[in-house]
Amino acid sequence: MMTRVLASVAAIFIATTALSEDIKLAVTTSFENSGLSEVLLPAIKEDIGLDVQLLVVGTGQALRLGQAGDVDAILVHSRAAEEKFVEEGYGTYRREIMYNDFVFIGPAADPAEIASSSSAVVALQKIAGTAPPFVSRGDDSGTHKMELSLWESAGLDPAEFADWYRAVGSGMGASLNTAAGLDAYILADRASWLNFGNKADLALLFSGDPALFNQYAFLAVNPEKHPHVRNDLAVKLETWLTSPRAAELINSYQINGETLFTFNAQPR
Amino acid sequence: MSDIFEGLSAAFWLVVTLDPELLQISLRSLQVSLTALVIACAIALPFGTFLAIRRFRYRRLAISVLNALMGLPPVVVGLIVYILLSRSGPFGVLGLLFTPTAMVIAQVIIITPLIASITHQAMRELWAEYHDLLISLNTSAAQRIRTLIWDGRRNLLTAALAGFGRGIGEVGAIMIVGGNIDNATRVLTTAIALETGKGDFALALALGFVLIALAIGVNICIHWLSRTEREGRW
To answer: How many CB atoms lie within 10 A of CB A72?
Structure first.
């Protein structure tokens, strides 16, 4: 009895599903948390019959996955790191797709008074001056890299900060949860913030500085480095992502009446 | 606190409406953990019994290592399996990374020592009882292992269920080797981590309650199938 049951259970579970045209795409947590992927992926499936399997990781890890050839393409937002990726031959070129912006989130009472800042750098200097809790992604993601470069522009070094500066080493959503729990300041991308469900006492305090511009780019993994990657599918996906249909979907994606992303791919 | 009630009601509606996505990830959770359990048992039960009945030179060391491995950190297992299965790793050509198979491999590594260790404990006592009989019948090692496994099946069930519990509730390793891909490698625990990340605590909790219910359900099923804890038979 027992053996027969076990055998049939094993038979059911060992059978694996047949694979259709699958492409593995590593994307940043902000792309997934914003909810845009839920709009784009069904459209891609419908238009070009491609099943996009998303690996939602930080930009740092996405680039690592691309280097190892574990994914076919990546969609990330950290220009310097992307250019290095292409330079080292892991990708053939980078193609800009869309942008949104980073925003400063913090306790609605705003103890550091950053809401009235003239620029992002001034806002950070105010935060460092009053030293309220500040949550950093600390995971080598695009958002983390942006935050570090802003600190650098402000002439400050996070390594020297006291324990009001908390590097949590998590994705955007998890970091926002931490910030909500600590009533802390945090740098987030606008899309993730708008789509975030646990806002607690936090509010959007500062945005609009051109320094906070957040460009997303698509990079296909170089088939010369990794012959097994599906470059044909990656190119197909790139063509779709830069098409008028994608432009319409991206530009019309809204949460609470706010547009989240602006399509800016250049035809080539 | 209200989050918990919202979670409970969300869980109730998900189950009542047979949400197709919930169904899919629950089945995948079961598929991965039960497959891992079957494979792990096939390795761990004979091995644990073998350790109990055989005397060999490094037996103490083997048992200590086995007990220590019970606490193997899933994240580390995940990372090692990831590196091995990565396209630039030694088994990259198999293309197994980010598939349910990779998740099964990681879980087998995590739960095998646990099952083997509990098996060894249970079998040691049983062997003390059966020692003289089996020796005097001049049985072979394989026959002894088989007899002990059969007669100790109640204890081994506990070992297997402990392994299953560790597998189905595990998130660290399968997140790394599976990648939490929607429609491909998303299971209950990774979906909970994802929804928590989105700040959607109600849905995360709902999935959590479904997971707990699933674990209880499987335990009850296995007890029922193996007819333990019945009047006159226990």
So the answer is: 26
Domain residues of chain B, as ranges?
Answer: 2-223
pLDDT tens-digit series, residues A33-82: 788 999 999 999 999 999 999 999 888 889 999 999 999 999 999 899 99
B2-223 folds as: MetI-like fold (1.10.3720)
A10 burial via Cβ count (<10 Å: 0-12, 13-18, 19+): middle
Residue of A nearest to B30 (CA): A13
- Chain B neighbors of A13, CB-CB under 8 A: 30-31, 34-35, 38
pLDDT at A132 over 50: yes
> Cα angle at A41 between A39 and A42, to 5 degrees?
80
Question: Model confidence over B159-172: pLDDT tens digits?
Answer: 999 999 999 999 99
Comparing alpha-carbon positions, the chain A residue that sits nearest to B226 is: A2
- Count of Cβ atoms closer than 10 Å to residue A169 Cβ: 15
Separation between Cα atoms, residue A227 and residue A150, nearest integer Å: 38
Answer yes or no: do A177 and B196 touch at CB < 8 A.
yes
CA dihedral A258, A25, B210, A8 (to 10 degrees): 150
Please state the ipTM of this predicted complex. Answer: 0.73
What domains can be seen in chain A, in order of their start residue? 20-100+213-263 (3.40.190.10), 102-212 (3.40.190.10)
Question: Rounded to whole angstroms, how far apart are CA atoms A135 and A184?
Answer: 6
Query: Which residues on adjacent β-strands are paired with residue B177?
Result: none
- Which pair of structure tokens corresponds to residue B104? 């099964």
Residue A101 backbone phi and psi in degrees, to 5: -140, 160
**Cβ of residue B179 closer than 8 Å to a chain A Cβ:** yes
Q: Closest approach of chain A CAs to the CA of B39, in angstroms?
A: 9
- For A189, the token pair is 């991308």
Instruction: State pTM to two decimals.
Output: 0.81
CA distances from B127 to B55, B112, B123, B133 (A): 12, 21, 6, 10
